[in-house]
Amino acid sequence: MTLIVKPGFNGMTDADAIAYVNAVEAADGQLLEFGVGKAINDFVVGCKLDNTWSAIKASCILAGARTLAGALVPLAGTAPTNVGPFVSGDYNRKTGLVGNGTSKYLDSNRSNNADPQNSRHMVVSVSNRQTNSALYITTSTTLNGSGDSYLFQSADFTSNTVKLSQGGTPAPLAGTNLIQGFFGGSRNNSGSIIVRRQGVNVSASIASVSPVAETLNVFGTTGFYTNARIAFYSIGESLDLALLDARVTALITAFGVAIP
Fold it and tell me: Which domain holds residue 124?
């Protein structure tokens, strides 16, 4: 059975949002609730108003869908490869997909060098924080080497570090205790990055280097897999983290209201 959302149905007006919801519903085998569809539409429309939509190159909303298959439908870019694999019991419609901390991850199928050296972002929305020192998004092999990228959280929650095509080991950013929520970084120049966590932006003067040509994994890599629950991720070119944070937070909140 093919399910087709028409403009105006489910509170939807945007063509990209409609195409995404159609694909999710086809994977789920049934329609989404009105509130879920409207929340997705509002998110896409909002990102376009904010001028962040075009910078999102590889992304999944890992919540909202009725099934894990639906949640792995890409919002942007190529569908991720489910390695491990994640199973239906790992998925919660309101809060997202949980890692096991040992072996499960999503290959984003986007290379670290697909975006310009000085225009890139990586973000996640964390529903439940991890209890181990691990990586949310990372280059698949190179860690603390030249040109790698990652989002890291320590087990004691006292340290977050973000690398976006940098060299060597970055110093932890002071005061970056992450409880849960939106976490990520964006680079729009050669000399510094912006990190956002707990609703606050922090700037760090870190020079860029040529990005290593490795795929980016969500939920970590060997030795550093996260057991956090993630509801959204995005990889791509530089964007306004505060604006994207507001849209993602509103989206996940709306799911919590719309889903029984």
Answer: 57-239
